[in-house]
Amino acid sequence: MAQPDRVHDVVRLCAISAEPLSVDAALAAIADDGCGGQVVFIGRVRDHDHARAVTALEYEAHPGALAALQRVCRAVADTHDVRAVAAVHRVGALAIGDIAVITAVAAPHRDAAFAAGRELIDQLKATTPIWKHQLFGDGESEWVGLP
């Protein structure tokens, strides 16, 4: 009989979506009665960047972005004492206040949950090829995160 793959069983939600993201769905994905620590990060579109007014954002993902996000989730699951990992990133046009990214982890203890949660969002931002096109109040725009 094949043994379950702990790392893949731990990654409960990993997606890139053009639809609005749900914090409730991320929390449901990491639900585990054996976990006393849950850490959730919610990244929202803010109305400024470096003292410039931002009016909207557009996110675009490379065709390999989901595979990159899956690698990040698996690496966090493999290197931390966590029982559940979730990560979702939005693409398309977003308005100020919209949720752009949600990461969540569940661990038996808070220290592991905090460490894993921090690594999950940091590695997602550093290695997943999703690019942000910021639209500024003065009519200019800028791409962020391009290689």
From TrEMBL:
The keyword Mitochondrion does not apply. One of its GO terms (biological process) is Mo-molybdopterin cofactor biosynthetic process. Signal peptide: none annotated. Gene3D superfamilies: Molybdopterin biosynthesis MoaE subunit (3.90.1170.40). Its EC number is 2.-.-.-. Keywords: Transferase. Pfam families: MoaE. GO terms for molecular function: transferase activity. This is Molybdopterin synthase catalytic subunit 2. It comes from Nostocoides australiense Ben110. The lineage of its organism: Bacteria, Bacillati, Actinomycetota, Actinomycetes, Micrococcales. The gene is moaE.
